[in-house]
Structures are given as structure tokens and as C-alpha cells.
Amino acid sequence: MADEPTIWISGRLVEKIRAHGAETYPHECCGALLGRDSGVVAGSDPNKDALNAEREILELLPLVNRRDDSPHNRFSVTADDVRAAEKAAREHGLDVVGWYHSHPDHPARPSQYDRDHAWPWYSYIIVSVQKGAPQDMTSWRLTDNREGFSPEGIEIRHRAAV
């Protein structure tokens, strides 16, 4: 779809997310996406610019899954983790633009739990890890009314943006 939001990410960062998911298997991994919004998709509705902004992911901040009761199918970050992500982003001249996590032995699509704990505006990258091997990777944004997620395209850049 022409007005689907898109995130741009390097192949190096994609591999880091995939490796983090494999490393923490059979538990979920999690981390912060650091970057910036770079513009709006051509032909997008000006009233939806925030949703349609193209987003560049330029750094990651891997985090520890704080969930101790069911880390195999849930992840949790603390307020201190969020503050650490915001600090890391500032140090790089970036913003926290989203979060990533893995789904061990499940598809790379948001669960009801993910929806209940997500915030609108942020990008949510999910990597499926099947039997310890990273598979599909998808990205999503929660709708403003919190009724569901909208898919977000992932464009892999094989060289650094100038």
C-alpha cells in the first residue's frame, strides 16, 4: 500500500536483533529502537503524518527482559530501562522511536498482550525465533485508538545513509 509507514534499518542492525533473539531463546529478547522520523510518505494524508512518517532506525539498545514469571512468552521493561533508552538516544542525537522483541516458537505478529502493553506512535519490531533460529521479522504501529496494530514496511539499507 502506498501510504503504509516504513522503517529504514541497516542489515547490520537487523542481524543484531536476530542474534539477540537467538541468544535469549527460549525466552523473549527485548530492546529499544533509536532513530528519527525522516519525512512522510508521498501522497499521505496530512492529518496522519505522524503515522505515515518514514522512520530510520540508526542504533539499538538491547535490554534485559525483566519478566521473571513467563519470559518465554512475555517481555517487560522497567521505567529505568525506558530512561536508559532515552539517555542513550540523546547521547547519539536520536530519539527512542520504538521497541523490538522476539516471539520464541510463534509468528512475528503482535499478540493481545503486545497490544495491551504497547503505546501508539512507536514502532514495534518482532522477530520470530523457531527452535533457536531467527525467522521472519515484521514491524507494527499501534493505532491511536489502541484497537489494533497496523503493519509497517521494513526497508533494509545495505549502506549507511548520508
Please describe what this structure looks like.
- With 162 residues, this protein is an alpha/beta fold.
- It has a single domain, classed as 3-Layer(aba) Sandwich (Cytidine Deaminase, domain 2).
- The chain has 4 helices and 7 strands, in the order E-H-E-H-E-H-E-H-E-E-E.
- It has helices at 11-24, 49-52, 79-91, 112-117, and strands spanning 6-10, 30-40, 53-63, 95-104, 123-130, 133-142, 149-157.
- The chain has a 7-stranded mixed barrel.
- Strand 4, helix 4 and strand 5 form a beta-alpha-beta unit.
Please summarize the sheet with the most strands.
7 strands, mixed, barrel
Secondary structure: number of strands: 7
Along the chain, the helix and strand elements come as: EHEHEHEHEEE
Rg for CA atoms: 15 Å
What is the count of distinct domains? Answer: 1
**What is the CATH top level name?**
Alpha Beta
Q: How large is the share of residues in beta strands?
A: 35-45%
* CATH superfamily grouping: Cytidine Deaminase, domain 2
Low-pLDDT stretches are: 46-50
Write the layout of secondary structure elements.
Layout: E1 6-10, H1 11-24, E2 30-40, H2 49-52, E3 53-63, H3 79-91, E4 95-104, H4 112-117, E5 123-130, E6 133-142, E7 149-157
Parallel strand pairs: 1-3, 1-7, 4-5
Antiparallel strand pairs: 2-3, 2-4, 5-6, 6-7
